[in-house]
Amino acid sequence: MDKRFAVVLAAGQGTRMKSKLYKVLHPVCGKPMVEHVVDEALKLSLTKLVTIVGHGAEDVKKQLGKKSEYALQAEQLGTAHAVKQAKSILADEKGTTIVICGDTPLLTAETMEAMLREHQEKGAKVTILTAVAEDPTGYGRIIRNENGDVAKIVEHKDATDEERLVKEINTGTYCFDNEALFRTIEQVSNDNVQGEYYLPDVIEILKNQGETVAAYQTDNFQETLGVNDRVALSQAERYMKRRINKRHMQNGVSLIDPDHTYISPEAVIGRDTVIYPGTVIKGRVVIGEDTVIGQNSELENSTIGSRTVIKQSVIVDSEIGDDVTIGPFAHIRPDSKIGNQVRIGNFVEVKKAQFGDRSKASHLSYIGDAEIGTDVNLGCGSITVNYDGKNKFMTKVEDGAFVGCNSNLIAPVTIGKGAYVAAGSTITDDVPGQALSIARARQVNKEDYAKNKHKK
Ligand code: UD1
Ligand code: CA
Q1: Contact in structure between 95 and 5 (CB atoms under 8 Å)
Q2: Residues 341-357, mean pLDDT to the nearest whole number
Q3: Nearest residue CA, atom 26 of ligand 1?
Q4: 9 labelled as ligand-binding?
Q5: Which of 18, 54, 220, 371 is most buried, by the most CB atoms less than 10 A from its CB?
Q6: From its phi and psi, is residue 301 left (phi > 0), alpha (psi between -120 and 50) or beta?
Q7: CA of 32 to the centre of ligand 2 (A)
Q8: Known catalytic membership, residue 454
Q9: Where, by residue number, does Mg(2+) bind (predicted)?
Q10: Is 15 annotated to bind ligand?
């Protein structure tokens, strides 16, 4: 196989987005557009991938990190000028160079492979990925000659009324013979409505030089959607969501309402897991089998075991075991590790806390900076008092301990193995294992108090 290279164009500001955020960093299903593009391109066994950065260069580099090499386009003079910036990295190479726009997030490696096959078979110097758009407004149009061969691409703004009727569009994705690309790119002029150096002009130049120009038409326009504004961004979001959700359903996950279930591209979900509407799964989330994720739950960068039930809850940067029930309305904050068969009930907040197997905090608790052993019962309203305004302190509740309702555990403090804390206690000192600690004022009943008061 020929060596393969890729150039991803990502230097534009994206004026039409009307945003502080650079266009290619706008997320689709939680992942920046340009990263979707780069991740797909990386599936093509590339020797090098170069991203052209300009506006927001540092932010784009930070996002993509080592996935790409970078070339700076200091001034955005057009897509041909953008590709030219990769000259020092690519111009001496022999092989095939794929050029992709950073604002076409739905494009798949399969489609690019199909374009590459066509390119190979035709022995072309350039192959354009085209699609038929119901509404081609804004896209470059593919102009074919009487034999049906591609003659040139005309930008929407430069097109005649007749050319604008053409529905076959340039998707902005091409593969080139690398040497031909860097040779002809020097010949592109900026003599057009926008005064820009257009990459698509390379096609007409090559054609006029008698080179073979090929086109691969995909029947999936959605996949080639170019995102220039927020309307297109919302369409991209919808298509990507459908694609992700379909994949999970085909893998054996039940989505009760896939139109209202939002799953990140990285999520991994086991078979027979059921996800109810309004659930948002962000970042790297791994969910086991036979788990039920209740409606309107939000899971982010977390691992959830099998046979666990999560209802109307928020879980961030945490690990949840098997056979656990969480919620409704629980909040599991970062660095929490919940064992197996644990129960975290309604209005319980957990932060940076470990729960051993079979432990429970069933109602109305705050458990932060804590190590809870196995088989512990934290009664309704148990609170770890972990913060003195400056520093955070640890609470330890050892295996089998029972903390009565409405107890304050003032950290640092340890409740020993199998100990009891009486309801309403404010615990400031360690409780030895097996002990009962009562830390509350004694009850005083004043007989006939009310009767006497009313008499006065
Ligand atoms: C471009 C194509 C058009 C095609 C459409 C597909 C050109 C001239 N037109 O139009 O034929 O139908 O994509 O979506 O190529 N960029 C740079 N540097 C620049 C200019 C642009 O890096 O100087 C980057 C942008 O960040 C963007 C990509 O190139 O990711 C495409 O630029 P954009 O301005 O969106 O081009 P379109 O008008 O959509
Ligand atoms: Ca575009």
Answers
A1: yes
A2: 98
A3: 12
A4: yes
A5: 54
A6: left
A7: 15
A8: no
A9: 103, 228
A10: no
Handedness of CA 76, 130, 86, 53 (dihedral sign): positive
Query: Does 2 score more than 90 pLDDT?
Result: no
Contacts (Cβ under 8 Å, ≥6 apart) of 351? 333, 334, 335, 336, 366, 367, 368, 369
Tell me the pLDDT of the chain averaged across its residues.
97
CA distance 426 to 440: 7
Q: Whose alpha carbon is nearest atom 14 of ligand 1? A: 226
pLDDT tens-digit readout, 361-415: 999 999 999 999 999 999 999 999 999 999 999 999 999 999 999 999 999 999 9
393, 411 in Cβ contact below 8 A?
yes
**pLDDT tens figures, 267-292:** 999 999 999 999 999 999 999 999 99
Q: Which atom of ligand 1 is nearest to the CA of 199?
A: 15
Distance between CA atoms of 399 and 394, rounded to whole angstroms? Answer: 16
Domains and CATH numbers, the chain: 4-224 (3.90.550.10), 252-356 (2.160.10.10), 359-455 (2.160.10.10)
Q: Is pLDDT above 90 for 456?
A: no
Whether the per-residue pLDDT at 141 is higher than 80: the answer is yes
Please tell me the distance from the alpha carbon of residue 185 to that of residue 47, in angstroms, as a whole number.
21
